[in-house]
């Protein structure tokens, strides 16, 4: 890989910060390490890296995990000091420990991919943005749901139409999707906003800006994170939006975004994998999200850019700030 500094040019929209720092010509796969080899690393990151010729899994850092045939380190510190050939890291640990790892990797001059949510607070991610800028590395705050098949076609379909109402229903069974994950109930773990932020990442990608006007948060007795939340949004564009997040849904799972417009009703279903217009399926595809993430990360590294959009995390923070809290029955794993 050759790297040639070019003048800094920062282009900022209200949502997305993309920074160009270095022009990078990639001549061979980027050597990448995964930090935190747990559920999402095994389910998605490893297969996506394996099937993307622009990356090569060079190492891992995981206290209990690892990948056969790949050198594993107990900590990111030992990885960074022992393996100067590792050019990028994908941070797949829970959000509460992501800042420290990201800061170390950036200081060591490595490109950084952040799993969602990009951090436990907004300010810490802003610090990472400044660090990445001064180090000239790419920082990518990923929102995997934005790469679901129906998201970009939905954004296109909505262009020029008047949105009247938006209803998000994101209801799943926490025991099925997060068995034994203690961190998710700890401060910074986000509780039901861990999946809910995926819906918010789609809403913020397909619709004009809105802000939280009301929220109710249901905390199981003795837990530090909510098991359910209801949000109301408003915005300059004039439509109302609601979001209903619940982790107590057994049976069929629901990940739907309904958008009523002056020209019909669109439903983005199954977390964005299916798109229906006036009840008719117009698009359905299998899971492509993480393949899209790694394509984008390669583009960012090659272009010397970063991509950080904090708007989904801002909505969650606002819900915690504005939300009325109630205590509901205890939750046991
Ligand atoms: P996980 O399996 O519970 O944790 C991932 C790995 O992080 C663990 O195997 C562990 O590896 C390391 N880790 C856990 N706690 C740690 C701590 N306190 N300090 C340092 N390392 C720690 O979690 P996950 O489900 O993969 O989720 C990780 C991130 O991906 C979360 O931000 C989540 O929102 C996001 N995500 C998850 C899913 C999903 O379906 N699970 C989907 C999309 C995104 P070692 O013990 O080996 O170090």
Question: What brief labels describe this structure?
Answer:
single chain, 333 residues, alpha/beta, Rossmann fold, Dihydrodipicolinate Reductase, domain 2, 2 domains, nine-stranded mixed β-sheet, 9 helices, 18 strands, 29% helix, disordered N terminus, binds NADP nicotinamide-adenine-dinucleotide phosphate, Gfo/Idh/MocA family oxidoreductase
How would you describe the overall organization of this protein?
The chain is an alpha/beta fold. The protein contains 9 helices and 18 strands. It has helices spanning 39-50, 76-82, 98-107, 122-135, 151-158, 174-177, 193-206, 289-303, 311-322, and strands spanning 2-12, 17-25, 30-35, 55-61, 72-73, 88-91, 111-114, 139-141, 163-171, 211-220, 228-234, 240-246, 254-261, 264-269, 274-277, 280-284, 305-308, 324-328. The N and C termini lie far apart (47 Å). Bound molecules: NADP nicotinamide-adenine-dinucleotide phosphate (NAP). NADP nicotinamide-adenine-dinucleotide phosphate binds at residues 36-41, 62-65, 92-95, 97, 115-116, 144, 181, 183, 194.
